[in-house]
Design brief:
Helix content is 31%, strand content 27%. It is an alpha+beta fold and 438 residues long. It has 2 domains: 7-105, Beta Barrel (OB fold (Dihydrolipoamide Acetyltransferase, E2P)); 123-426, Bira Bifunctional Protein, Domain 2 (BirA Bifunctional Protein, domain 2). The strands form 4 sheets. Strands 6-10-11-18-17-16-13-12 form an 8-stranded mixed beta sheet. It has a 5-stranded mixed barrel with strand order 1-2-3-5-4. The longest helix has 23 residues, at 132-154.
């Protein structure tokens, strides 16, 4: 066989002999010819195999080869050599007239068809990953990960890897996954934050993208038990500076995805021109201003002091066509490490970034509490034992400095950019309250 190229590369040649390989995406035919739509990671293309064009080979007579080709089913793997030409009737505008075909792996009757339920597709996720839909999503996801590294490294950040096993909570004990650790017990990480706060005293500006675990008993389309978080922590940063960094990051991710995944976004039904318009600056409003917008524009009266639920976030974002940052949430509902605003102690120096079109919170961040006694009180209020956090409290005893950070939910960003109905499709193998397989 000749040197193989991708289907996308073959189509860029437009004419002449090409050699491709991939899997049967669709098939139909008669006793004289076979239409095979072949897919690889780059695209799909229609290939026409005619019985009369097959030649004898050392492995098969033409008749034997035709018998095998005529029995090919969806997901069989093949290598093909033929002449490519434009054909408007073909699914992607090109067709290959096959001169030689080699069957690499046969396929049983593929269990997935057009009318399968969502749960069935999750059960068969190892096979459904091959779908054009999920392939496009995974390509966008890959671009997002690449953009994260590109963004942070261009700004002089260091990548810092935290432990996955942790001795204590970061985001509340109720959502901890407990695991056996030799003869003791520990927990799967909820966030890198506490360890990142230790590292900024050495590296100052750091980032990391890795898995986090939350034992949330939620069955919504927005929650996963295992998800990926892109987190950053910075010495000498305050709330305005860290929230602006978050805006720059999201704007850069959008720019990279639009530049590198136009075909994938089209396949997923995303409006690319709409995404192109999402550029800096992004609006910043306070929690109090958000409640005012909800009351005046949506006739939704939310009591001050209550967290914004999904319904309030979705309603708020109907009034914006790009992400917004909401700052200064009530102190009483925030985590122990978020400090009160000295100018308004009933609020905290924190922020959430909300995405438009009902995709909700994609980033959460804050300045960090630097007062040792305030940290102790916050931990005690949440029912935590101070002994478990002595190492963390040490950070306030030895050369403490102002610092801030945030975490971005990768799957939530991917779901938004790919216009997904459910966050489960933003990760290869979703883990939820009810699903731990395949």
């Amino acid at each position: 066989m000749a040197d193989f190229i991708s289907i996308k590369e073959a189509m860029s040649k437009e004419s002449g002999e090409v050699a491709i390989r991939g899997w049967v995406y669709r098939e139909r035919g008669s006793n004289k010819f076979k239409f095979l739509v072949i897919r690889d990671s780059s695209n799909i293309i229609q290939c026409v195999v005619k019985k009369e064009n097959l030649a004898n080979s050392p492995d098969n007579t033409a008749e034997q080869l035709w018998d095998k080709v005529s029995k090919l089913q969806i997901e069989a793997s093949v290598e093909i050599v033929g002449d490519i030409k434009k054909d408007e009737r073909a699914p992607t505008g090109y067709e290959i007239q096959v001169k030689d075909i080699k069957i690499i792996g046969i396929s049983d009757t593929f269990p997935i068809n057009k009318d399968q339920s969502t749960e069935f597709l999750l059960d068969k996720r190892h096979l459904w990953l091959r779908s054009r839909h999920l392939t496009a999503v995974m390509k966008v996801r890959s671009t997002v990960f690449g953009a994260l590294n590109k963004f942070y490294r261009s700004k002089g950040f260091f990548e810092f890897s935290p432990p996955v096993f942790t001795p204590n909570a970061c985001e509340g004990g109720a959502t901890l996954f407990e695991v056996k650790y030799f003869e003791e017990k520990c927990y799967l990480t909820q966030s890198w934050q506490l360890y990142a706060e230790a590292a900024i005293f050495a590296l100052e500006k750091i980032y990391f993208t890795g898995p986090c675990f939350r034992a949330e008993r939620s069955k919504t389309s927005r929650h996963l038990a295992e998800f990926w978080m892109a987190e950053t922590e910075c010495a000498w940063y305050d709330l305005p500076k860290i929230s602006e960094l978050a805006k720059e990051l999201v704007a850069f991710i959008i720019e990279e995805v639009v530049k590198n995944n136009e075909d994938d976004l089209k396949l997923l039904g995303q409006d690319i021109e709409k995404l192109k318009k999402i550029t800096l600056p992004f609006p910043t409003i306070t929690y109090t201003e958000a409640l005012k917008i909800l009351k005046e524009k949506s006739n939704m009266d939310v009591e001050w002091g209550k967290d914004l639920r999904t319904i309030e976030e979705d309603e708020l974002m109907k009034h914006f066509d790009k992400p917004i940052v909401v700052t200064h949430y009530p102190k009483e509902i925030m985590a122990f490490y978020k400090p009160a605003d000295p100018k308004d102690p009933k609020t905290t120096l924190c922020f959430d970034m909300l995405a438009p079109e009902g995709y909700g919170e994609i980033i959460g961040g804050s300045q960090r509490e630097t007062d040792l006694e305030a940290l102790k009180k916050g931990l005690e209020k949440e029912g935590e034992k101070l002994d478990n956090y002595e190492w963390y409290l040490d950070l306030r005893r030895y050369g403490n400095v102002p610092h801030a950070g945030f975490g971005m939910g990768v799957e939530r960003v991917v779901a938004w950019l790919c216009k997904l109905d459910n966050i489960k499709d933003a990760i290869p193998f979703p883990r939820t309250m009810l699903r731990k397989t395949p």
